[in-house]
Amino acid sequence: MIVEFRRRTLLPLDDVLGCLRNSTPKLTRSSLHRCLLRHGISRLPNTEDAPAKKGKFTDTKIGYVHIDICELRLSSGKLNMFLAIDRVSKFTYVEFRDEIGKMNGADFLRGVVSAFPYSIHTVLTDNGMAFADLPKNRTGPTRRYLGPHIFDRVCAENDIEHRLTKPYHPWTNGQAERMNRTIKEATIKAFHYPDLDALRDHVLAFVSAYNFAKHLKALKWKTPFEAIDLAWTKSPEIFKINPRHLIPGPNTGAVSDGGAAGLDR
C-alpha cells in the first residue's frame, strides 16, 4: 500500500508520512524511507534539481487573515469566490457573490468576522476595488469628504488593522492565492460539473473537509480545527465562542448558504 501510494501521488517523504500515519500507526520516517529505498522509489523525479527558494511569513498570533477573490469558470458561466484564510491556523472561509464591488467586499468581511470563532486583529488584501481605493484616490478633498473606503470602515468597527500588499504586486498575498489554487485543483481541474450550483456545493463541501479533516504539514500534521482547538486551550480570552461548537453534527447541514461548510452554529 505504501509503495503504491507513493507511485500514484509522487508526494515528498514527509507528506507521505503525514497521509499514512493514521492508517499505519507504527510507521516512522526512517522505516518509511527504508521501504521506499528498498523498492527503488526513494527519490522523486528531478529531485536533483535545486529547489526554488521559498519565503516565510513573519511569525504572528492567530487572527491574521488573508483575503482574496478568484473566479471559478465553467462553460456555462463563472462564480466569484471571496476567500479568507488565517495565516496561523489555516482555517478557511468562502462566500460566492454575483459582483466583486466594494459593498460585496465589506459584506464578506462581516461574514468572516461572524464565522471565525476568535477575534481577528489583522486582514491582508490586495489593492482591488473591493478592498481599497486606487492609490491616487486615497488622498485629497474628495476622499476627506467621502470618508474611508467601506472595507476600512468595517475593519474599524471590529478593531481590525487593514494591511495592503504592494500596489501592482498582488501575488504577495500568497496564502490566499495558494488556497485558491488548491480549491481549483480539487474542483474544476479535476471534475466536470453540470452547472454552477453543483460546483458551488462541491467547493463548500471541500472547504468543510479541509477545515475539519485535512492534516497539514505546516500545522505539524494537525487539521485547521485542531490548531484552533489548541489555541483555545492556550488563549481562551481571544475567542468569542467555544470552537468545538463548530464541529458538524447529525443535525447540522452539510453546507451553509454562501459560506464555508460546517460553520452553522
Q: What name goes with the CATH superfamily of the largest domain?
A: Ribonuclease H-like superfamily/Ribonuclease H
Query: What is the helix tally?
Result: 9
Strand composition percent: 5-15%
Number of domains: 2
Low-pLDDT residue spans = 47-52, 254-259
CATH fold annotation of the largest domain: Nucleotidyltransferase, domain 5
Q: Overall mean pLDDT score?
A: 84
Major beta-sheet overview: 5 strands, mixed
Query: How are the strands of the biggest sheet laid out side by side?
Result: 3-2-1-4-5
Present the secondary structure layout.
Elements: H1 2-9, H2 13-20, H3 29-38, E1 64-74, E2 77-86, E3 92-97, H4 102-115, E4 122-125, H5 141-146, H6 150-157, E5 161-164, H7 174-186, H8 196-213, H9 224-234
Parallel strand pairs: 1-4, 4-5
Antiparallel strand pairs: 1-2, 2-3
Helix pairs in contact: 4-6
